[in-house]
Amino acid sequence: MQRYGDGREIHSGDRIAYNNQRGRVVFVADRREFEPGYEWEEYSSGVMIEFDNGARLLLDRVDERLVLERARE
Q1: Which of 73, 70, 72 is nearest to 22 (CA)?
Q2: Beta strands in the chain (DSSP E)
Q3: Phi and psi dihedrals of 10, rounded to 5?
Q4: Does residue 41 fall inside a structural domain?
Q5: pLDDT tens across 48-67, in order?
Q6: What is the pTM for the complete model shown?
Q7: 26 in Cβ contact with 50 (< 8 Å)
Q8: Backbone angles phi, psi at 40, to 5 degrees
Q9: Structurally, how many domains does the chain consist of?
Q10: Structure-derived torsion over alpha carbons of residues 20, 34, 10, 25, reported in degrees to the nearest 10
Q11: Is residue 24 part of a domain?
């Protein structure tokens, strides 16, 4: 199960900061948890981040630079 460094679970829709860039989690593949429009079935694990500037990053393991700013609502 994917978690932040503080032990809280990562969920799609979470607002995050990663390496001083802000964005949101758009899917958590391990849990099959996807934001609308991001049902990318080819991934079986990992967390996809979409940054506010439109760039995307797939993390396949916990990274201390990933920080929860606001949990999904």
Answers
A1: 70
A2: 15-18, 21-28, 33-34, 47-51, 56-59, 66-70
A3: -85, 135
A4: yes
A5: 999 999 999 999 987 889 99
A6: 0.91
A7: yes
A8: -90, 90
A9: 1
A10: 10
A11: yes
